[in-house]
Amino acid sequence: xxxxxxxxxxxxxxxxxxxxxxxxxxxxxxxxxxxxxxxxxxxxxxxxxxxxxxxxxxxxxxxxxxxxxxxxxxxxxxxxxxxxxxxxxxxxxxxxxxxxxxxxxxxxxxxxxxxxxxxxxxxxxxxxxxxxxxxxxxxxxxxxxxxxxxxxxxxxxxxxxxxxxxxxxxxxxxxxxxxxxxxxxxxxxxxxxxxxxxxxxxxxxxxxxxxxxxxxxxxxxxxxxxxxxxxxxxxxxxxxxxxxxxxx
Length: 248
Fold this sequence. Notes:
single chain, mainly alpha, Rhomboid-like fold, 2 domains, elongated
């Protein structure tokens, strides 16, 4: 096992532990008929408020769990690798926020499964690219868009009755809110994209046709800079003429 692979596994250790936990709970629940569905979220019943923490860990069937396994592993891995500063806060915020929205507005039924968190992470990774607008976040947004564009239909109530479309919808909404909340928390590798390339020395930067900050200034600011440059040229010309007369 190579060093790079070991480092990768170490980085995604928490997503892997989460996946292992999910695959322990559901098979045990089904095999021993533990009835853990009662720990799902049942809207507007006060005792089920704590289920915002337990509901995502429970799945109704192996098929339900299997369909959520790869997305939750991929998305949480993207989160911990590319957004380490906010990864835990984002995951906890989406989990709690989505659960509370389901508890407040969803149908009176037991809502279980981690799909609401999955939709929240999809929305977060996509919209953080829209808000931050740097190369890394935009590329990740496009990857998520390509991988999960077909998931949009599951946020509407015209799906199977036993699917919690509310969890999908509220997860997506809260994912956008979390992305907006953390839009200014820039990761260390994102700061690099805003710096000049290492090979670009001062002389090479001067060779650009327009100043690098040309589009960051208003028209009036550029006009005043132009006037100042003309004034300096005139002063230099006058000083040059004065020196020539004194030398004659």
